[in-house]
Specification:
alpha+beta; five-stranded mixed β-sheet; four-stranded antiparallel β-sheet; 13 helices
């Protein structure tokens, strides 16, 4: 008796189906697309996960293939490079410990900086680009006479001028004023508050007894980034020096002091895993809230601190609108370190802004408080405040490091 072709095919299909293991539930006897066993949502979720793995896998393979320095590295090696530099991969974005994207691994396999230019060596993403640019500016100043002329707003620089960096190894002593040190010792050191004084001066242009102290910013840059104790010193001495004799500013000072106590109350929270970052905790928090799951201590701290930071930023905006001169003076102190360092080498006299990842000079501004009313300095500070409307947030020192609230 002959069996028709279609009947043979039906038997073969039945046998293969019976032997086939479903890739969604690992049960034998049906395919993953069988609506009898799986809903449309389950099938779509599975397909999306597979697609995501394929995209990430292709990115890693293409990077390894394209980058000669990584020919023999596995996907795990690349992930290790990211984690060792206190960064994470979120989609195609590489995020640093400050929760900011520093580059991308595109779906076409190309590694790119934020500005879209192609990265030849992935390790270059993790270098301190500000310090790298600083070295390039110094090198240009010391070797290129035409480049020196770009700084003529400060003074005409002759062949006798060279650049230097104000560090101990170069013979410099960076010290805060005694009253600043005393006031800071009254506060509990929280977050990124330094144990040694970090100067506002990044570069010195010098010749014999002449020292021009330069604060170098690449692109937008930051006026400062500090924890609670340093923030308190800034607002305290700005008030004492410039506004104490005018009673109307007491309200502004009291509100800023309240923000300080809110920062201090959040403390320094040690995370419960060495692999956790600010972003990974926030992702876990969002997922658990959607699924009505209990939060762990890290996630509870993050949720509470996010709400506290919103309150602090709201207070900051109110103070800025009512007392703009006070807030502008705070930013001036953050840029110059005038009250923190006094006449010490740590106090910067000039702000030099370069284009992003470039030695091209964009702007040169004298850090003189006398020019705070109407000048390039005033315009720069107002623009900085406009772009940075929420200066209070929390951060970590890196993967697995403690979380704390910071100012800018």
């Amino acid at each position: 008796m002959k069996i028709c072709f279609f009947y043979k095919f039906e038997i073969l299909f039945y046998k293969k189906t019976k032997m086939r293991k479903c890739s969604i539930c690992d049960q034998i006897g049906h395919y993953k697309n069988n609506r009898k066993y799986h809903t449309k949502q389950e099938i779509e979720e599975y397909d999306n996960k597979v697609l995501a793995r394929m995209i990430v896998g292709n990115i890693f393979r293409n990077i390894i293939k394209a980058n000669n320095k990584m020919d023999f590295q596995s996907t795990n090696d690349i992930i290790d490079i990211i984690h060792k530099n206190n960064c994470i991969l979120y989609g195609t974005e590489i995020i640093d410990s400050s929760d900011k994207p520093i580059g991308k691994w595109e779906e076409d396999g190309l590694v790119k900086y934020k500005n879209g230019s192609i990265v030849n060596d992935i390790n270059s993403l993790f270098k301190n680009s500000g310090l790298e640019n600083e070295k390039k500016v110094r090198n240009e100043f010391d070797t290129n006479e035409e480049y020196k002329k770009l700084f003529n707003k400060i003074r005409p620089y002759t062949n006798g001028f060279i650049s230097d960096k104000p560090i101990k190894n170069n013979g410099y002593s960076v010290r805060c004023t005694p009253k600043w040190i005393e006031k800071k010792c009254e506060c509990d050191t929280i977050g990124s508050d330094e144990t040694s004084s970090k100067p506002k001066t990044d570069i010195i242009f010098k010749n014999n007894d002449i020292f021009d102290k330069i604060s170098l910013k690449m692109g937008e840059g930051r006026a400062t980034s500090c924890g609670a104790a340093e923030f308190y010193c800034i607002i305290h001495f700005v008030y004492e020096e410039y506004f104490k004799d005018n009673y109307i500013y007491k309200e502004a000072y009291d509100k800023l002091e309240e923000i300080y106590y809110m920062m201090k109350e959040r403390g320094k929270h040690p995370v419960n895993s060495k692999s956790r970052t600010k972003r990974s905790i926030k992702l876990d928090l969002d997922r658990k809230k959607l699924e009505n799951m209990d939060l762990d201590l890290d996630e509870i701290w993050v949720e509470e601190t996010e709400n506290k930071c919103k309150d602090m930023n709201k207070m900051w905006v109110e103070i800025k609108e009512k007392f703009p001169k006070f807030i502008e003076s705070i930013i001036f102190e953050c840029l110059s370190g005038q009250l923190k360092f006094g006449d010490n080498i740590g106090r910067a006299d000039w702000l030099v802004i370069t284009e992003n990842k470039s030695t091209n000079i964009k702007e040169i501004i004298e850090l003189n408080r006398a020019y705070l009313e109407n000048s390039d300095l005033n315009n720069y500070i107002k623009e900085y405040l406009y772009k940075n409307k929420n200066p209070f947030n929390f951060k970590s020192g890196g993967t697995g490091k403690a979380l704390y609230v910071r100012f800018f």
